[in-house]
Design the sequence.
């Protein structure tokens, strides 16, 4: 249980923080495509007896290399191209599962996550990833803020916005991969989107939005974990339901609703 | 005066659409150049070609005497760009001050902390444009005219040698248009920057703007002084309308 609590804490922070840029740039499908790429990669790893985290990471990197240019092309709607990547990855994952012989317990664990059985090495990897993410964000916060405001304006001001954009894209791939075993490939997308979307309703301060998003992520994981432990239900599913409820509560209590009506 | 921007037979295209065709022009240091033309004539592309946001298919662009291709980063740091106004989500968690700060972030360099001189430049830019009193407000809460002033303050904060304005008066009421025109005039007089201003409307060129070029279908069809450009036949041909329609 101690490891599960640590994984919840680190997973909540890393997903909450990386989700802010996805929400601010209005590309939630990046989260979907990335999480399913990690899932498909992990299944391929299991199929070919390779460490699933390694293959998940490779799939994420390959997806980033596809997603980046696709989001920059003016002639294709990014949601369409990302939707195609997402469905391709899901198809690959289910194909891999279909080709597997014997019980598919490990594959199903990767799909739904198993935070209660997270290993020590997974936890260390998660801690390193979260630390690295926070360090990079601190070092390049003003550049990230500029890119989140407007990519063209950032580029015109001499900021290396493509380096920042691709850096965020690859980092989100790493975050998704390291959270795969605990949260699960199908559910991690919600943990990347719901907490920052909830934080967006509450504040006009970007650093506070990062903090609130991480806090909502941790809160969702803790409540979900405790509930699943008591009621013996899948932890990943409860975490997602809790994070969705947090979003609904923030939406209803949002001080920005009046502003939106005025505009 | 030295030439600060030089286009030699520049062609810019987006797939099959040619936005600029074989354009050659020289802009002297300290000039205030107006660029007019109808929709789709390549005015915005001309600006984005100067700061390297557009992709040059053929020809050469030199800015500050440097090849744009190989010195893009340096060139962008020294050009203040005010793009066409765009909608901003009123819920966006970014303040006016943070937007103006972007002008200094690129100038300072990746991962480097801003210092006192950067913060002084930001405060000065806010004061010049007259928006110091709402620097803490969310950017999405401002009116169109106020947002345009923020964009101008961001460009000023860069302390650029060249400023590019892309239709800064569009979508503004007459009072706000007048404010922006006067602001561009005073910026030109006080900073001595080279300015290129793109607009649909000749009357929106400030009095400091002495040179004007007319673009049509990606080509420069006229280059001359402001008074020469006032010719109604030229303008009627440029906008493909009757001279009477121009008067209204």
Sequence:
């Amino acid at each position: 249980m101690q490891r599960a609590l640590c994984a919840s804490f680190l997973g909540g922070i890393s997903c909450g923080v990386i989700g802010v840029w996805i929400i601010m740039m209005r590309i939630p499908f990046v989260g979907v495509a990335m999480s399913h790429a990690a899932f498909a990669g992990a299944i391929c790893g299991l199929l070919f007896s390779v460490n699933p985290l390694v293959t998940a990471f490779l799939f994420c990197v390959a997806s980033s290399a596809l997603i980046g240019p696709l989001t920059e092309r003016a002639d294709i709607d990014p949601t369409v191209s990302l939707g195609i990547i997402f469905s391709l990855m899901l198809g690959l994952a289910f194909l891999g599962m279909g080709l597997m012989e014997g019980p598919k317990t490990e594959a199903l664990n990767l799909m739904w996550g198993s935070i209660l059985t997270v290993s020590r090495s997974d936890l260390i990897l998660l801690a390193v990833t979260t630390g690295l993410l926070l360090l990079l964000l601190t070092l390049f916060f003003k550049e990230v803020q500029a890119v989140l405001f407007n990519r063209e304006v950032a580029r015109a001001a001499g900021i290396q916005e493509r380096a920042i954009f691709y850096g965020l894209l690859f980092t989100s791939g790493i975050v998704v991969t390291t959270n795969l075993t605990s949260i699960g490939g199908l559910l991690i997308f919600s943990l990347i989107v719901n907490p920052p979307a909830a934080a967006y309703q509450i504040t006009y301060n970007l650093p506070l939005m990062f903090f609130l998003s991480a806090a909502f992520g941790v809160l969702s994981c803790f409540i979900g974990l405790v509930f699943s432990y008591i009621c013996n239900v899948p932890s990943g599913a409860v975490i997602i339901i809790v994070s969705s409820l947090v979003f609904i509560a923030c939406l209803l209590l949002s001080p920005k609703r009046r502003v939106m009506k005025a505009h | 005066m030295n030439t600060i921007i030089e286009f030699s037979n520049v062609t810019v295209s987006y797939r099959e659409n040619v936005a600029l065709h074989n354009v050659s022009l020289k802009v002297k240091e300290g000039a205030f150049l107006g660029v007019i033309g109808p929709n789709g004539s390549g005015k915005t592309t001309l600006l984005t070609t100067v700061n390297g946001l557009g992709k040059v298919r053929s020809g050469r662009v030199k800015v500050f005497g440097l090849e744009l291709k190989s010195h893009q980063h340096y060139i962008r740091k020294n050009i203040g760009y005010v793009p066409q106004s765009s909608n901003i989500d009123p819920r966006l968690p970014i303040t006016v001050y943070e937007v103006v700060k972007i002008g200094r972030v690129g100038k300072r360099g990746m991962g480097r902390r801003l210092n006192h001189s950067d913060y002084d430049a930001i405060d000065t830019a806010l004061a010049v444009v007259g928006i110091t009193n709402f620097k803490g407000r969310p950017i999405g809460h401002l009116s169109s005219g106020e947002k345009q002033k923020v964009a101008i303050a961001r460009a000023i904060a860069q302390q650029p040698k060249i400023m590019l304005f892309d239709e800064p008066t569009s979508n503004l009421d007459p009072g706000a248009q007048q404010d922006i025109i006067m602001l561009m005039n005073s910026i030109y007089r006080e900073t001595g920057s080279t300015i290129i201003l793109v607009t649909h409307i000749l009357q929106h060129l400030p009095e400091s703007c002495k040179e004007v070029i007319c673009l049509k279908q990606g080509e420069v069809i006229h280059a001359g002084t402001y008074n020469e450009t006032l010719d109604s036949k030229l303008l009627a041909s440029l906008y493909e309308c009757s001279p009477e329609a121009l008067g209204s």
In short: The longest helix of chain A spans residues 206-231. DSSP finds 14 helices and no strands in chain A. Chain A touches chain B at residues 74-75, 139-140, 142-143, 145-146, 148-150, 152-160, 163, 200-201, 203-206, 208-209, 256, 259-260, 262-263 (CB under 8 Å).
